[in-house]
Design goal:
Keywords: Heme, Iron, Membrane, Metal-binding, Monooxygenase, NADP, Oxidoreductase, Signal, Transmembrane, Transmembrane helix. This protein is of the alpha+beta class. Helices cover 45% and strands 10% of the residues. Helix 6 packs antiparallel against helix 7, helix 8 crosses helix 10 and helix 13 runs parallel beside helix 18. The structure holds protoporphyrin IX containing FE (HEM). The site of protoporphyrin IX containing FE has 29 residues, from helix 12, helix 13 and helix 18.
């Protein structure tokens, strides 16, 4: 590999990280392939766990081991607390007026604090417990009706998506938004989220080669603008609906709270940093929540069920655990979850092998810095290959690619490892100050949905599919979809009273 020497703050000369040679103009963009997280894992085996790429005129570094991820996200987190400019943020996320792409600063902090306070703190999360449980119960009822009609199979990821979307929507805008007679068709809304993730994950050439920007060679920007208009109409609908309600009728949902704040004068002492939210900020935040928090969680449940169906003994062990704690005359509640140790291990193992955002979300260096002996220049984009890191045999051993939840059980090899950003070998939610804002909600709803489904139903495959033949292929977007949706036939396994509504 070529090593350019650059002078560093101290005057010492540091090499740039090694990396593959790229094409003229486009750099390494044409080499990414259909699944960039796989390609980048292979490049790390060749060039090492900290390597460099060039996309057009943009410099990138990729972190592909727990140790390197820790160097960036712990030691250098402050320097990488911004996200690089990108067309998705501009054309979909209201020109950076949202939380996910907000410049690191007062408005980002205020938006993040607002969600933490009203949705994701332990207290807010518990206050919204009945909303999640209610939606889980509705999912069960819906599946029950499917179980009585013969075997076309149910797309279980779609069912979980309805549950995840409506639970979040009730917390954010005070009502359900998908499914029977409430507005968007469930399939259509999920389709919009998947499209957004595909576009956001597309590595738009125009973002990296300014000269080609106007051409929009992949048509990504045109699609983004179109998709944005569809979302914007939905967000406008939420707001106008709220504004027609009289003051007293306004709920405690996030939208009501934000609208009220927007109308009130700022209180200098309210810890708001002089930040006044606009209607655009409100729409952009709602868009963030309803996209970042829906397909990520439902896809995780779908991957978990697919792994469990492929590992019948593990599924039986899980069902035994839930039966022991919950019994067979009612559904799972969130109060049961802390006692479900094996379930927790199953969820961690699912996040390990199938992290929802395989390349996390990009960060950008605010200043020059030195990482693990290499020079990383200001403006360099950081990608963290969380997918490769959580499959790295150096961290996970020879059975790294096997689905084996027991590794997380007491006495197991990874007993103390959690997904919350402190253990860099398992960071599906990222780490550091820009880590996932919705971690607590995401974990809770994924765990509740998975527990509820395996407890309430036996799930058998349809159309002659057998567990060993089940297709586990990934479809890449910013989020990791199953290439082939999981189709199952649900069969109730609890006492009839458990399903009574
Ligand atoms: C399976 C569930 C989820 C996974 C695996 C996941 C993963 C991630 C990751 C990897 C990041 C980037 C972190 C970084 O830059 O270090 C992120 C950011 C974010 N996520 Fe999640 N997420 C999930 C669920 C949710 C939910 C339920 C919500 C909200 C309802 C949410 C909202 C956000 C937001 C707002 C950000 C941007 C944070 C910021 O820039 O400050 N996510 N998520």
């Amino acid at each position: 590999a070529v090593c350019y020497l650059r002078s560093h703050g101290s005057g010492a000369k540091l090499p740039l990280p090694p990396g593959p040679r790229g094409w003229p103009v486009l750099g390494n963009l044409p080499q990414l392939g259909a699944k960039p997280h796989h390609t980048m894992a292979a490049l790390a085996r060749q060039h090492g766990p900290l390597f460099r790429l060039r996309f057009g005129s943009a410099e990138l570094v990729v972190a592909a081991s727990a140790k390197v991820a820790g160097s960036f996200l712990r030691a250098h987190d402050a320097n990488f607390s911004d996200r690089p400019p990108n067309s998705g943020a501009e054309h979909v996320a209201y020109n950076y007026q949202d939380l996910v792409f907000a410049p690191y600063g007062a408005r980002w902090r205020a938006l993040r604090m607002l969600c933490a306070l009203h949705l994701f703190s332990a207290r807010a999360l518990d206050a919204l417990r009945s909303v999640r449980q209610d939606e889980a119960r509705l999912m069960v009822t819906h599946l029950l009706s499917a179980s009585s009609s013969p075997a076309q199979g149910v797309a279980i990821g779609q069912e979980a998506n309805v549950c995840a979307t409506n639970a979040l929507a009730r917390a954010a805008v005070g009502r359900r938004v998908v499914g029977d007679g409430v507005g968007e068709s469930a399939r259509e809304f999920k389709g919009m989220v998947v499209e957004l993730m595909q576009l956001a994950g597309a590595f738009n050439i125009g973002d990296f080669v300014p000269a080609l920007r106007w051409l929009d060679p992949q048509g990504v920007v045109a699609k983004m603008k179109h998709l944005h208009r569809r979302y914007d109409r939905i967000m406008d609908g939420f707001i106008s609906e709220r504004e027609h309600l009289a003051g007293e009728e306004e709920g405690k949902d996030l939208l009501s709270i934000m609208l009220a704040k927007m109308r009130q004068p700022l209180h200098a002492d309210a810890g708001e940093d002089g930040i006044k939210f606009t209607e655009t900020n409100i729409k952009a935040l709602l868009l963030n929540l309803l996209t970042a928090g829906t397909d990520t969680t439902s896809s995780t449940v779908e991957w978990a069920l697919a792994e469990l169906i492929r590992h019948p003994d593990t599924l039986k062990q899980l069902q035994r655990e839930v039966d022991d704690v919950v019994g067979t005359s009612r559904l799972v509640t969130e109060a049961d979850l802390p006692r479900l140790t094996f379930l927790t291990a199953v969820i961690k193992e699912t996040f390990r092998l199938h992290p929802s955002t395989p390349l996390s979300l990009p960060r950008v260096a605010a200043e020059d810095c030195e990482v693990d002996g290499y020079h990383v220049a200001k403006g360099t984009t950081l990608l963290v290959n969380v997918w490769a890191i959580s499959r790295d045999p150096a961290s996970w051993g020879a059975d790294a690619l096997e689905f084996r939840p027991a590794r997380f059980l007491p006495g197991g090899s990874h007993e103390t490892v959690d997904v919350k950003g402190g253990d860099y070998e398992l960071i599906p939610f990222g780490a550091g100050r820009r880590m996932c804002a919705g971690l607590s909600w995401g974990l809770r709803i994924v765990t509740l949905m998975t527990a509820t489904l395996v407890h309430a139903f036996d799930l058998s495959l349809v159309n002659g599919m057998t567990p060993d033949k089940l297709d586990m292929e990934e479809a890449y977007g910013l989020t990791l979809q199953r290439a082939v949706p999981l189709l199952v036939q649900p069969m109730p396994r609890l006492l009839p009273s458990a399903y009574a509504t």
